[in-house]
Design brief:
about 25% strand, Naphthalene 1,2-dioxygenase Alpha Subunit, Chain A, domain 1, 11 helices, four-stranded antiparallel beta sheet, single chain, seven-stranded antiparallel beta sheet
């Protein structure tokens, strides 16, 4: 059965502005139905938030050869990420500079050049215009003036981030703060063991709000909750986390900085769209990694010398998150595909020299977070259906478990202001 959500008919820019300002005074509660049903709000979200934020698009291993490319599609726009012949990586809009046709159709592939299917304008793999048939009839025409429009790009330990804003803040100075916490995983040498897109029938905010809190973990994720201490109040698990932090240097062979907490996300972000977060928390005693039984799944990653009983939570930008265990890493990216449709993209990384079938079993590697994501898709869709009711009244958020949700919502409302 397909679920259809109505859009508010009594909607306008002035209504949106009034609703945003009213909600700012109601901190500590969830958003009212309007913010999930308004077409005006959704279009503003794409423009103000998604097209001005740094977003993970893929891993460097996806484009090993000259001409290799993949697309990142969002809203009505599409970006091409491509490796050029000098080994450099470029990102540019998938929009011909003549009449606007898409110059790349397949989601990924290899091209010697990008040829517009409409009138044949031909672009090099760095986006420069090589040929524009018969345009020399214009006396002042030059191919140099019409490259595919570049967008901002940053590569951090093999992870490729883009920002559709060509004048976006430099993400490099922010990701540098994660060097001691993310660097030891050596993701630039990692292997993508698997990736999956889970599409949920819900507005993207429902999806983000769900990811940012673990209030639901004990009831909705029984397997996850047996392993991860995030399911409990801090008071109950702080000693376990302290023990992990204390023992980690001796077990992993890394410095104390490996467990450093960094909190510069949403309202605390130093520049818009450049959120940075890290926290290393404890798994329950006896559990070593994020598997169904808590036991190792793959070779240790990068420079990590042993299982310290902990896991690293990361955030880069507003919509990209990672959960890194000592033997594998799981990346989440959330992208709206419509007002009531969101893709949850999940990527599993293992050490670069790990061999499938020998060093790891892909089905076992992905089992915990596949099951957890399917459970999330179910509860998020139920949340969306109920919260879009005309009778829904926003309730109070939990001061500890939903603290990040409150920070997200404050950032969201501030960013959405007229």
């Amino acid at each position: 059965m397909t679920t259809v959500f109505a859009t508010d008919q009594d909607d306008s820019t002035s209504v949106a502005n009034d609703m945003i300002e009213q909600q700012k005074s109601k901190q500590g509660t969830s958003l009212p139905t309007y913010f999930y049903k308004s077409d005006v709000i959704y279009k503003r979200e794409l423009k103000k938030l998604f097209f001005n934020s740094w977003i993970y698009t893929g891993h460097i291993s996806q484009i090993p050869n000259t001409g290799d490319y993949f697309l990142c599609n969002m809203g009505n726009d599409s970006a091409i990420i491509c490796r050029h012949q000098d080994n450099s990586v470029h990102a540019f809009l998938n929009v011909c500079r003549h009449r606007g046709a898409r110059v790349a159709e397949e989601q990924c592939g290899n091209k010697k050049s990008f040829v517009c299917p409409y009138h044949g304008w031909t672009y090099d793999t760095d986006g420069t215009l090589k040929r524009a048939r018969d345009m020399d009839m214009l006396s002042d025409f030059s191919c140099e003036h019409y490259p595919l429009k570049p967008i901002s790009l940053h590569i951090f330990h093999g992870m490729i981030f883009i920002n559709f804003n060509a004048d976006a803040p430099d993400l490099a100075k922010h990701t540098a703060q994660l060097e001691s916490t993310l660097g030891p995983y050596r993701l630039e040498h990692a292997k993508v063991a698997d990736s999956e897109t889970y599409t949920v029938a819900a507005n993207w905010k429902f999806v983000i709000e769900n990811y940012l809190e673990c209030y639901h973990c004990a009831t909705s994720h029984r397997q996850y909750a047996k392993i991860h201490t995030l399911r409990e109040k801090w008071e109950n698990v702080k000693q376990r986390v302290a023990d992990v932090h204390k023992n980690s240097p001796a077990i992993t062979g890394l410095g104390t900085e490996f467990c450093e907490t960094i909190s510069k996300e949403y309202t605390d972000s130093e520049e818009f769209g450049c959120d940075i977060w890290h926290d290393r928390y404890g798994l329950y005693e006896g559990y070593l990694t994020g598997s169904q039984d808590g036991q190792p799944l793959a070779p240790l990653m990068g420079d990590i010398g042993g299982f310290d009983g902990g896991a690293g939570d990361f955030q880069i930008g507003p919509f990209t998150f990672m959960l890194n265990y000592c033997d594998h890493a799981v990346l989440y990216r959330f992208i709206p595909r419509g007002q009531h449709k969101t893709d949850m993209d999940v990527v599993w990384f293992v050490n670069g020299d790990a061999v499938e079938g020998k060093d790891y079993d892909k089905e076992k590697l992905t089992a915990l977070w596949h099951d957890t994501t399917m459970e999330d898709a179910y509860i998020i869709s139920r949340n969306a259906e109920g919260a879009l009711s005309d009778y829904y009244e926003p309730g109070p958020l939990h001061p500890e478990f939903e603290e990040l949700d409150m920070k997200f919502l404050q950032w969201y409302l501030n960013s959405m202001s007229a």
